[in-house]
Design a protein that fits this description.
The protein contains six helices and no strands. It is an all-alpha fold. It has one domain. Helix 2 packs antiparallel against helix 5. The longest helix is centred in the first third of the chain and has 33 residues. The radius of gyration is 16 Å and the shape is globular. It is a multi-pass membrane protein.
Length: about 180
């Protein structure tokens, strides 16, 4: 029984890492601008809060749906995770010039919402599969906050193409978890 909890924790930790990769890659670009440490702290906290709230809303909706459709929940959850991961993976290979939203005022909320929208869908699939809610939300919020901070701090120091590769890695991880739910 304890090995089940360790496996669930490890799965949620890797999923939190995958979800936070969007925040990391976006914050890497933000960090390349002249930005103060106080602003970096605030941006990371708001992104973490959104990565907590969005999957929470998804988990609640997923629980409601799972009571209605029963055994199809794990299949539906796997399809959703795989779809999100595939979208992240393919968008990592498509280069587009992106206009950077300034992380000030309302722009900070738009930025946080945009990098956490995929965690709503992941929360929906987790609600369908009946995962430990408090642990998932804590890990998603904490990991995305940490990755946002890391991205901005690394962005201040390095001007590389690492952001694209982090989105590809995150998409690959979510695809793997989706396939595991479908076939494992």
């Amino acid at each position: 029984m304890p090995s089940f909890y360790i496996a669930e924790f490890a799965s949620l930790l890797f999923m939190a890492l995958a979800l936070g990769m969007d925040a990391f890659s976006v914050c890497l670009g933000i960090g390349m601008q002249r930005i103060r440490l106080k602003r970096i702290a605030l941006i990371g906290l708001v992104i973490g809060l959104f990565h907590f709230l969005m999957p929470f809303a998804g988990i609640i909706l997923g629980h409601v749906i799972s009571t209605r459709i029963g055994e199809l929940t794990s299949v539906l959850g796997g399809i959703i995770l795989f779809g999100i991961g595939a979208q992240m993976l393919f968008s990592g290979f498509v280069y587009k010039a992106k206009k950077v939203i300034q992380p000030i005022g309302f722009g900070l909320y738009i930025l946080s919402f945009s990098v956490s929208i995929d965690s709503f869908s992941v929360g929906l699939s987790l609600g369908l599969s009946g995962v430990e809610t408090a642990l998932a939300l804590f890990l998603f919020g904490t990991m995305s906050t940490f990755l946002a901070w890391t991205g901005m701090l690394v962005g201040k120091k390095v001007h590389t193409i690492l952001g694209v590769y982090s989105e590809v890695l995150g998409g690959s991880i979510l695809c793997g978890f989706g396939l595991t739910l479908l076939f494992g």
